[in-house]
């Protein structure tokens, strides 16, 4: 057993220098700031070493406090603990000594037969296999060396495992933390390269001594390991979702054959019993893999529990390689020809009580359920309360329990159909869009970071190794995307997790579907770029009047130290009106120097070297400039805006390095290249017919964006205008350069304080959030599937490669898929996104997400697996494209047709249902509602006065927002908040957060006696009824009666009353769940602002649009036609 | 045997048709390179753009010449393509300089396959018309 001496578990902060480590000294010298590095690292990185714990790792200094999150994750420091009582809510790592009944499962995944079966039997219900597992072949054909010593997943990795689980991590948790990573770094077994600088070596040794102090050498571990005893985490608060909250790793010493069911049985009591009692839907594999749909576990969280915060934060990771578990199926029982669950599709009427039945089963062991909840037919026209009381969660793919656990979090990666149809014909029959919704750079609380010499990838398709590959034997693995058999490299045989050898399937890459690799120099075209920020500011009369400069400079001053970056961070400023002003901030000057270029037809850089300066060297000058800037142009009379030339100059300035350009613009550009004319006809705002000018007026901005993208520069646009500014043209500069767009209509710092506050909050997030530079994202999918259209802000470089000059945690993407070859020979498909980027610390990193989904052959199964929210988001993206390329009315028709087609297709599969009723499977029951919401969205509505810029901005948001935010934008959540109780409340960080039920978006639900909160994603409205209880007004709003509430109120006062506390904690909890802190509007029933509120009540009839019921009738009519 | 204007037209178009065939082949190669990920769409679309306008103008020249030579059948064969070219030219994103091949959307699988099909069809059309012109040229030379 060869254990490279260099392996160790290192603090995250150690890894930071590895960017340099991998680049030769020669390259380093080309960077002007190179000499600073040594000092910087020793200064910055020695601090964290003092409080190194093997597990808490922060990427950003100062983020450490944030780290303490709800349920403590057990991490066993060192292996000397005699016994460890895992907190019930988190992963506990089980260690048993040799004689314990649950010991090694190692011997179970050996027989080659299992592997071969694995591809064909993907989705059998796992639980029922438990009981029989022990009988399986024990012989170790494939793994002759029986014992693979497995350490607990504890130690350093304990943390990492607790939250990477797909089902339990909810956005609520995630977004509030900026990426904090657990590092697994095991630097190369080779001796340090000569190019390594001495400080790195120092820190290396420093870290290794720290981390390795207690366990000692790997060879001595066995003794220590045996002392570990754990207890199963019994408290399983939310079995419907997680299934397993605790799992165990076992010590290697004794390969006891009969152990597996005891091992897993501990956490599956229900499942075991159900599988024992109801053998009928046994997930037996079938000769024809195509017709082996999964009976088990229909999407569990169809009825999610509101108490998501209280539920266990994590579970331990499964101990078996998924492939092996699939393989156990043949051993269980004989072949069962067809699956009662799905074949019973035509028999709906015979299950009148199916609803109660499935709810009583609670989604945990649907094996005994005759029919999954998601297929229950719903009569849309008769079901009055279609909206569930609790938020809708993503359906869980119908995989076996272990694959389910390994699968990627739906927050990062979602597919519109969680059951992939086998053929394009089947997909066409279902009339549903197939695509992926991605949120790849999401802020994660926990992320395994892997430093390894060789990043293991498939040799032919370059897929990264992931949890869904199958190991053919110890030395070879089979790619799950192209099915090529690859060798396992020597380094991969060593498992840093357990510090043992010969367990490639237990490596973190194979245990986590979301991992991050520290990339070597092979993944660089040039040395990692520093963080470079350029601010391009409009200072024309209009801009000064609006007064955004004060807010911007203030925010910048506050967050200057929090800008992501390392010692090389550079920053620059440009302002423009009819001329372009540069600011020389070179260190050594006594004050910032303003350089004016008035030749806007041929822009040049006056002093190319001193315009982008090192943030730390010139900090004083930058602060001086930021303090002076708001007042520098107060008396300007210049009304023109030469945005185009300013952007050209910015491009010239940025092109040597790349980075981020933030453009602040307040009016139509009126001078030089890229000038625009007003195209909006205010009389056409509420036209029901044609909406023109949704596309760009000129290609200037698009071309500029493409140039920028080529130079790794992203342009972010902040449009703060009071009049029409042709966002449709301006947005191109961000769309194609992977930037982001912010729009503040009628911005004024005093007249419109809510917008000012929004800008302030957005800026805070914008300046401090994570950022990745010079990024590319590649999406791979199983052979047979292909991607054909991408949505989002990026430039498509190749059929599956997106070029992203910058990536930020708030960017979402969508991909449309088609099925090119039929998927008959596989039962699982996988999708992998790999995002390669340069972190703000100058490291090259790869974030990999892998999603695994079952393939089904029947239409009913396709309907059972619809993720209606993802489908709506994809449709919205497609509709935006359609409205730009064709027309808005076309797009609206397409949206309506999507509902009509899918529901009529469903109706025709269910032949014996009465045709007069409008039926939908339960999984699709919200589809018409959401489509109606889309039709009433600013982007697509007609007949209601909508300013063109507002419409275009809504379209931009649809294209670039991740699903969670987009859904709130499309269909806001409405809560009644004047009677908040603690019933069903959840506890978050010692606060009690009430969970009021969701109300449907209809005025019918509003009562004059109540107060309602509407959560529209980026804005909250509190509507206060006329007859609202005075107690509420006094206790929560702080006014004596309804009449005294002011018209413009944007804050809830901090009152020391129970109801105020409840309301505030609820709102804070909602706010914490998203990156942008939304602004709050308190709307009185009489105030003119109530129109804003009422336009979101999408179930109601408006002058120009259907009510929900009318819409259903319309759909029904269309179907009958 | 006489050297009429029609014969001249056919001779000239024969030569130019060879150029068009070359353009079509060039397009096919370019899109194939895009598909196989050899080149970035920005790099690729610029030279493609450079060829689009010459191609359209050469083809328009044919049509004008055949119109003048009163070769109605040949003109009739070419008119559909002429209209298609006009449609492509005026039905393109904002500035006409971009023409049909827009780097950001060209990688869309649908667009790319459309462009490829278009290039193949044009190649076939130009090849057939090459032989047709050859035949017509000889025919006019011989018949009169």
UniProtKB/TrEMBL annotation, chain B:
<comment type="similarity">
    <text>Belongs to the cornichon family.</text>
</comment>
<dbReference type="InterPro" id="IPR033466">
    <property type="entry name" value="Cornichon_conserved"/>
</dbReference>
<keyword id="KW-0472">Membrane</keyword>
<keyword id="KW-1133">Transmembrane helix</keyword>
<keyword id="KW-0812">Transmembrane</keyword>
<protein>
    <submittedName>
        <fullName>Protein cornichon homolog 3 isoform X3</fullName>
    </submittedName>
</protein>
<dbReference type="Pfam" id="PF03311">
    <property type="entry name" value="Cornichon"/>
</dbReference>
<feature type="transmembrane region" description="Helical">
    <location>
        <begin position="58"/>
        <end position="84"/>
    </location>
</feature>
<dbReference type="InterPro" id="IPR003377">
    <property type="entry name" value="Cornichon"/>
</dbReference>
<dbReference type="GO" id="GO:0016020">
    <property type="term" value="C:membrane"/>
</dbReference>
<dbReference type="GO" id="GO:0016192">
    <property type="term" value="P:vesicle-mediated transport"/>
</dbReference>
<feature type="transmembrane region" description="Helical">
    <location>
        <begin position="123"/>
        <end position="142"/>
    </location>
</feature>
<feature type="transmembrane region" description="Helical">
    <location>
        <begin position="7"/>
        <end position="29"/>
    </location>
</feature>
């Amino acid at each position: 057993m060869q254990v490279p001496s260099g392996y160790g578990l290192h603090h995250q902060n150690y890894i930071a220098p590895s960017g340099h480590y991998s680049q030769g000294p020669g390259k380093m010298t080309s960077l002007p700031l190179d000499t600073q590095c040594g000092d910087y690292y020793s200064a910055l990185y020695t601090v964290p070493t003092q409080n190194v714990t093997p597990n808490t790792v922060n990427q950003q200094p100062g983020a450490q406090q944030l780290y303490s999150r709800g349920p403590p994750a057990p991490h066993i420091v060192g292996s000397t603990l005699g016994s460890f009582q895992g907190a019930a809510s988190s992963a506990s790592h089980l260690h048993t000594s040799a004689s314990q009944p649950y010991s090694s499962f190692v011997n179970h995944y050996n027989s080659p037969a299992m592997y071969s079966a694995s591809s064909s039997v993907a989705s059998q219900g796992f639980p029922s296999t438990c009981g029989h597992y022990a009988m399986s072949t024990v012989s170790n054909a494939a793994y002759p060396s029986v014992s693979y010593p497995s350490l607990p997943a504890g130690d350093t990795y304990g943390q990492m495992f607790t939250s990477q689980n797909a089902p339990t991590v909810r956005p609520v948790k995630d977004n509030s933390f900026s990426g904090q990573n657990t590092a697994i770094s095991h630097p190369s077994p080779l001796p340090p390269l000569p190019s390594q600088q001495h400080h790195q070596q120092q820190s290396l040794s420093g870290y290794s001594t720290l981390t390795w102090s207690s366990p000692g050498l790997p060879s001595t571990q066995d003794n220590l390991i045996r002392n570990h005893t754990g207890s199963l985490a019994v408290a399983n608060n939310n079995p419907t979702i997680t299934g397993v909250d605790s799992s165990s790793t076992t010590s290697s010493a004794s390969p006891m054959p009969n152990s597996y069911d005891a091992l897993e049985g501990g956490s599956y009591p229900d499942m075991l019993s159900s599988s024992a009692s109801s053998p009928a839907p046994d997930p037996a594999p079938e000769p024809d893999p195509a017709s082996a749909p999964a009976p088990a576990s229909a999407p569990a969280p169809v009825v999610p529990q509101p108490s998501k915060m209280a539920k266990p934060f994590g579970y331990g990771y499964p101990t078996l390689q998924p492939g092996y578990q699939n393989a156990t199926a043949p051993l269980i029982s004989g072949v069962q020809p067809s699956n009662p669950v799905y074949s019973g599709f035509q028999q709906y009427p015979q299950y009148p009580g199916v609803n109660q039945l499935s709810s009583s089963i609670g989604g945990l062991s649907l094996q005994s359920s005759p029919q999954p909840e998601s297929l229950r037919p719903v009569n849309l026209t008769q079901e009055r309360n279609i909206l569930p009381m609790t938020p809708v969660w993503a359906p869980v793919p119908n995989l076996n329990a272990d694959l389910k656990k390994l699968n990627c979090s739906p927050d990062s990666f979602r597919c519109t159909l969680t059951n992939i149809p086998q053929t394009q014909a089947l997909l066409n029959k279902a009339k549903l869009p197939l695509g992926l919704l991605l949120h790849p750079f999401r802020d994660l609380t926990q992320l395994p970071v892997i430093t390894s010499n060789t990043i293991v990838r498939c040799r032919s398709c370059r897929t990264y190794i992931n949890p869904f590959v199958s190991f053919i034997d110890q030395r070879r693995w089979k790619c799950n995307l192209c099915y090529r058999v690859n060798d396992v490299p020597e380094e991969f045989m060593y498992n840093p997790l357990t510090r043992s050898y010969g367990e490639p399937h237990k490596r973190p890459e194979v245990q986590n579907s979301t991992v991050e690799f520290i990339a070597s120099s092979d993944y660089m075209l040039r040395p990692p770029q520093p963080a470079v920020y350029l601010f391009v500011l409009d200072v024309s009369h209009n801009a000064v009047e609006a007064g955004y400069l004060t807010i911007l400079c203030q925010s910048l001053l506050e967050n200057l130290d929090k800008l992501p970056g390392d010692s090389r961070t550079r920053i620059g400023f440009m302002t423009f009106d009819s001329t372009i002003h540069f600011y020389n901030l070179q260190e050594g000057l006594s004050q910032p120097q303003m350089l004016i270029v008035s030749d806007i037809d041929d822009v040049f850089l006056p002093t190319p070297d001193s315009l982008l300066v090192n943030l730390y060297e010139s900090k004083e000058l930058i602060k001086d400039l930021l303090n002076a800037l708001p007042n520098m142009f107060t008396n300007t009379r210049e009304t023109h805006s030469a945005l185009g030339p300013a952007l050209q100059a910015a491009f010239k300035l940025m092109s040597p390095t790349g980075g981020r350009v933030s453009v602040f613009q307040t009016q139509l550009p009126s001078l030089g290249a890229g000038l625009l004319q007003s195209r909006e006809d205010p009389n056409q705002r509420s036209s029901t017919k044609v909406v023109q000018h949704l596309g760009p007026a000129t290609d200037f901005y698009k071309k500029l964006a493409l140039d920028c993208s080529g130079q790794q520069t992203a342009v972010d646009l902040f449009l703060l205008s009071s009049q029409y500014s042709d966002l449709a043209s301006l947005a191109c500069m961000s769309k194609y350069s992977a930037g982001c767009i912010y729009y503040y209509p009628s911005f004024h710092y005093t007249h419109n304080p809510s917008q000012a506050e929004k800008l302030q909050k957005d800026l805070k997030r914008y300046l401090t959030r994570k950022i990745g530079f010079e990024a590319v994202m590649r999406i791979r999918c199983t052979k047979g599937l292909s991607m054909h259209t991408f949505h989002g802000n990026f430039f498509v470089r190749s059929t599956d490669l997106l070029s992203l000059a910058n990536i930020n945690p708030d960017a979402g993407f969508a991909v449309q898929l088609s099925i090119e070859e039929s998927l008959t020979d596989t039962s699982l498909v996988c999708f992998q996104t790999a995002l390669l980027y340069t972190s703000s610390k100058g490291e090259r990193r790869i974030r990999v997400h892998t999603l695994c989904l079952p393939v089904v052959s029947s239409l009913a199964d396709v309907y059972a697996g619809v993720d209606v929210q993802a489908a709506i988001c994809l449709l919205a993206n497609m509709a935006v494209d359609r409205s730009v390329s064709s027309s808005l009315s076309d797009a609206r028709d397409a949206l309506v047709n999507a509902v009509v087609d899918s529901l009529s297709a469903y109706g025709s599969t269910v032949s014996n249902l009465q045709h007069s009723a409008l039926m939908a499977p339960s999984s699709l029951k919200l589809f018409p509602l959401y489509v109606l919401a889309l039709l009433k969205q600013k982007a697509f509505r007609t007949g209601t006065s909508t300013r063109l810029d507002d419409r275009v901005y809504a379209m931009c948001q649809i294209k670039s927002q991740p699903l969670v935010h987009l859904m709130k934008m499309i269909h806001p959540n409405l809560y009644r908040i004047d009677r908040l109780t603690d019933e069903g409340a959840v506890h978050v960080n010692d606060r009690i957060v009430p969970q009021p039920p969701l109300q449907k978006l209809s005025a019918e639900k509003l009562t004059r006696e109540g107060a309602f909160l509407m959560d529209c994603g980026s804005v909250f409205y509190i509507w206060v009824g006329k007859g609202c209880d005075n107690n509420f007004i006094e206790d929560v709003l702080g006014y004596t009666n309804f009449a005294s509430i002011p018209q413009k109120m944007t804050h809830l006062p901090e009152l020391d009353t129970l109801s105020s506390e409840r309301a505030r904690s609820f709102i804070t909890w909602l706010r914490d769940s998203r990156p942008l802190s939304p602004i709050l509007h308190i709307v009185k029933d009489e105030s003119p602002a109530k129109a804003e509120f009422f336009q979101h009540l999408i179930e109601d009839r408006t002058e120009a649009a259907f009510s929900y019921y009318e819409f259903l009738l319309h759909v029904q009519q269309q179907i009958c036609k | 045997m006489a050297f009429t204007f029609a014969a001249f037209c056919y001779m000239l178009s024969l030569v130019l048709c060879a150029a068009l065939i070359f353009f079509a082949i060039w397009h096919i190669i370019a899109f194939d390179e895009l598909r196989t990920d050899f080149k970035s769409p920005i790099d690729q679309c610029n030279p493609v753009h450079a060829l689009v306008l010459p191609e359209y103008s050469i083809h328009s020249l044919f049509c004008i010449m055949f119109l003048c030579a009163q070769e109605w059948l040949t003109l009739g064969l070419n008119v559909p393509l002429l209209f298609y070219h006009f449609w492509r030219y005026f039905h393109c994103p904002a500035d006409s300089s971009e023409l049909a091949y827009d780097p950001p959307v060209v990688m869309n699988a649908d667009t790319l396959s459309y462009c490829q099909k278009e290039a193949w069809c044009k190649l076939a059309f130009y090849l057939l018309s090459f032989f047709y012109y050859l035949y017509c040229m000889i025919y006019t030379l011989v018949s009169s």
